[in-house]
């Protein structure tokens, strides 16, 4: 654990009378020893970088513990502020007195010593404030509800009318509330589920229609009703090293490199089963819960009680799950990125499914990657970590090549179905006949699948109707007035929506620059594709899945259920539809424009493209009728697209790794990216230049061995203006991450940032725009 750091000079100096009075009232340690005292190191969320030290008054001595929150006086005015106690030690008092802890906020620690240590490591690793990390690790519901009174749980009163016929005197909202209250829920949960307002619920409580009941400790477990199948040889060979590490109580990272449908999830399930046999707990991370309902339900069927931590949980629900996990009542936790912090007291296994997904990296501070956090936890607990993917990240792949991690391959699909044949359509041979992007080959493929009563998935990774609207006379394109981005046209209503800031602007039929009437619409999005598909195949039932149609809670599940039932023939969507779905009737997958992300200014553009196409192609042909894939591209010879077309991710890796190595990019080096924002273009540029100058100075100063370290930029960011702010960026890269962070720390130490600029540091960035 990081040693408690001395508090800031200003905190020492601001010792005024109230502080001294506290000292005089609690002089116990002075009797034992004039100079030593119990000192708590306290991290304040978001304000001060370092822990501050406070004396623990005798009356609180038995209560102050690392992992609890403490109320402490802050600043000259001794503003009472809540912070996290990260260490307690008996120490000699510095010459001037320290302020004292005012009160203890929690009955029990919110974080174990190991989790505290993890947060301290994270703040170092990703160069972010320790307080920010603590806030990220503890869900808001836990922070708010912990140690406070419990929210009352409500149920229908026994005398409330039970059947609909007996409810004529109730309003429709009241009926909804009674119908939704099938288990004890807090008022906010009940409001959420029933759609009724809190006021309605309060009135029902006052009228005696609802009563307060004892809170349930955890949702009741459903019985597991699924027996594991015998494993294939490849699956058994993959499971063996996981179980062996478990048995021997040592850490090992096992990468399951298996094509889609090769039985990776079954290996996770049996590894989890083994964990439970040892009386331990397992955490399974998935990219996004709402996109992986099948995975979650498989875990539920196999294990009964599973804590599923999804983003739609209310704070109270999340708090309940948190408590159940911390109490060891739940053996299996399934969740997205932040579930890596689940407070399991007896962790025995951590699994990351689709480990290459970028959603495992948090886009806001703290900008951590769940894969690295998972590895830290597993190493610390001496337990196995399992990473699964059909297309492992190159960082992961390289660690297997060097032998640091163990790779287990599942090269074939379960049940002997073959990977679907892929047909590449070269868009340079002539653009698709119709606007909306279907070549005659793709159209024929769709017809083939529909005739065989199969289903179709069409991927286009651009939402909206058209990606830009341009004047055909002067070439002026319609852009967002506060961002450097073309407006995406959404129909109906000719709304131009900025995908940077969300601003909506009515697109007029005349050019604002030259007055010509008749703007042309370029770059089809999913909305236009859906229109076109529905017109081309009027007999087919078409649905669309993208961020625009999936705003409402439950809409993913509803659409996927309809697709599974066969109520949808053609599903059009963005990358959302590429994730782990297993639908045996899908006979055709069409990638409408494979190059959509290929030419972005990001060193991972090729990797992402290859992963996306491979993933979506794997949705086809899982059933007995087989399947096909049609990939439309203007660059059929690009290694990323060629490899995906022959299901040979290895070929892509062999091509890409030497390029990364030559450029010093990950996995052969690390990158720290800075983004500077300002209302003033000059201020943004100047601050970026200043930062770059300080970094270069550090490199050449000779104080560290900076061989191979270089600074790229500054340059305007690819999205140069966003929400009225100018954006400049720069990168420092080099072979050793620890050294990079040290150089950055030295370069920014004591910097006074002008008020006009804001800037972020992103260690291991995955977002380069
Ligand atoms: P992946 O996670 O690699 O996509 P899954 O574990 O989902 O693969 O397996 C694909 C399908 O094969 C699923 O329907 C699963 O139930 C089935 N399956 C997996 N392993 C076996 C096995 N050993 N025997 C029979 N069926 C299996
Ligand atoms: Zn905008």
Task: Please count the helical segments.
Answer: 23
The percent of residues in helical segments reads 25-40%
The poorly predicted ranges are 1-33
Biggest sheet architecture: 7 strands, parallel
Radius of gyration: 29 Å
Structural class: alpha/beta
Globular, elongated, flat, extended or rod-shaped: what is the shape? Answer: globular
End-to-end separation: 36 Å
Average of pLDDT: 86
| Residues in β-strands, percent | 15-25%
Bound molecules: adenosine-5'-diphosphate, zinc ion
Care to count the β-strands? Answer: 30
Strand order of the largest sheet: 11-12-10-13-14-9-15
Short recap of the structure:
With 769 residues, this protein is α/β, with parallel strands linked by helices. It contains 23 helices and 30 strands. Helix 10 (233-248) runs parallel beside helix 11 and helix 20 runs antiparallel to helix 21.
General description of the model:
Strand 20 and strand 21 (504-506) form a beta hairpin. Mean pLDDT is 86; it is low at 1-33. The chain is of the alpha/beta class. Helix 20 (639-645) packs antiparallel against helix 21 (649-663). It has 23 helices and 30 strands. The structure holds adenosine-5'-diphosphate (ADP) and zinc ion (ZN). Zinc ion is lined by residues 480, 482-483, 485, 498, 500-501, 503.
């Amino acid at each position: 654990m990081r040693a408690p750091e001395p508090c800031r000079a200003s905190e020492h100096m601001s010792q005024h009378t109230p502080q001294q009075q506290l000292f005089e009232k609690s002089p116990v340690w002075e009797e034992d020893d004039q100079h030593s005292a119990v000192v708590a190191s306290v991290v304040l969320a978001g304000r001060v970088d370092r822990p501050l030290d406070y004396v623990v008054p005798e009356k609180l001595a038995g209560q102050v513990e690392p992992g609890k929150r403490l109320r402490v006086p802050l600043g000259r005015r001794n503003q009472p502020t809540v912070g996290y106690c990260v260490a307690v030690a008996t120490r000699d008092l510095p010459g001037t007195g320290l302020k004292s802890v005012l009160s203890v906020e929690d009955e029990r620690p919110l974080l174990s010593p190991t989790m505290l240590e993890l947060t301290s490591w994270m703040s170092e690793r990703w160069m972010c404030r320790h307080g920010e990390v603590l806030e990220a690790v503890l869900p808001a519901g836990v922070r708010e509800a912990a140690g406070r009174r419990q929210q009352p749980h409500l149920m229908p009163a026994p005398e409330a009318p039970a059947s609909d016929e007996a409810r004529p005197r109730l309003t429709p909202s009241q009926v909804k509330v009674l119908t939704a209250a099938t288990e004890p829920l807090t008022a906010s949960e009940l409001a959420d589920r029933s759609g009724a307002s809190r006021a309605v619920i309060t009135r029902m409580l006052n009228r005696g229609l609802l009563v307060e009941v004892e809170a349930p400790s955890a949702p009741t477990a459903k019985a597991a009703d699924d027996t594991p199948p015998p494993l294939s040889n490849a699956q058994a060979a993959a499971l063996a090293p996981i179980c062996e590490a478990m048995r021997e109580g040592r850490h090992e990272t096992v990468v399951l490199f298996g094509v889609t449908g090769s039985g990776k999830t079954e290996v996770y399930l049996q590894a989890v089963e083994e964990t439970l046999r040892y009386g331990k707990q397992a955490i399974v991370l998935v990219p996004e819960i709402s996109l992986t309902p099948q995975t979650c339900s498989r875990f539920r069927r196999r294990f009964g009680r599973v804590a599923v931590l999804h983003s739609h949980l209310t704070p109270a629900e999340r708090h309940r799950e948190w408590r159940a996990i911390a109490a060891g009542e739940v053996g299996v936790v399934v969740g997205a990125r932040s579930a890596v912090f689940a407070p399991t007291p007896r962790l025995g296994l951590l699994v990351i499914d689709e480990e290459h997904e970028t959603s495992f990296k948090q886009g806001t501070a703290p900008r951590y990657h769940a894969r690295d956090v998972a590895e830290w936890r597993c190493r610390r607990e001496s337990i196995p970590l399992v990473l699964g993917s059909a297309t492992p990240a190159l960082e992961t792949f390289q660690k297997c090549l060097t032998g640091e991690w163990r790779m287990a391959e599942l090269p074939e699909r379960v049940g002997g179905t073959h990977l679907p044949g892929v047909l590449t359509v070269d868009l340079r041979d002539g653009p698709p006949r119709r606007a909306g992007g279907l070549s005659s080959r793709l159209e024929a493929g769709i017809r083939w699948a529909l005739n065989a009563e199969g289903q179709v998935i069409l991927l286009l990774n651009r939402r909206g109707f058209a990606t830009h609207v341009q004047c055909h006379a002067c070439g002026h394109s319609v852009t967002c007035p506060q961002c450097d981005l073309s407006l995406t046209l959404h129909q109906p209503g000719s709304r131009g929506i900025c995908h940077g800031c969300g601003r909506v602007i009515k697109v007029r039929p005349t050019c604002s620059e030259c007055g010509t009437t008749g703007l042309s619409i370029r770059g089809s999005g999913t909305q236009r594709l859906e229109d076109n598909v529905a017109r081309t195949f009027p007999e087919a039932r078409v649905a669309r899945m993208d961020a625009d149609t999936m705003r409402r809670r439950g809409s993913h599940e509803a659409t996927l259920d309809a697709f599974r039932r066969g109520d949808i023939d053609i599903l059009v969507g963005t990358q959302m539809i590429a994730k782990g779905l297993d639908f045996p009737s899908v006979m055709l997958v069409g990638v409408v424009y494979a190059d959509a992300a290929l030419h972005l200014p990001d060193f991972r553009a090729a990797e992402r493209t290859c992963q996306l196409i491979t993933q979506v192609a794997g949705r086809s042909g899982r059933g007995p009728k087989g399947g096909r894939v049609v990939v439309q591209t203007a660059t059929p010879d690009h290694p990323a697209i060629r490899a995906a077309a022959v299901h040979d991710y290895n070929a892509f890796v062999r091509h890409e790794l030497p390029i990364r190595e030559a450029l010093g990019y990950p996995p052969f080096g690390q990158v720290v990216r800075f983004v500077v924002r300002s209302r003033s273009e000059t201020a943004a540029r100047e601050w970026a230049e200043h930062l770059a100058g300080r970094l270069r100075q550090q490199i050449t100063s000779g104080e560290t061995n900076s061989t191979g370290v270089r600074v790229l930029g500054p340059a305007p960011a690819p999205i140069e203006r966003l929400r009225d702010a100018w954006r400049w960026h720069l990168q420092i890269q080099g072979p050793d991450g620890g050294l990079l962070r040290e150089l950055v720390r030295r370069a920014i130490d004591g910097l006074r940032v002008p008020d006009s600029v804001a800037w972020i540091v992103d260690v291991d960035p995955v977002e380069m725009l």
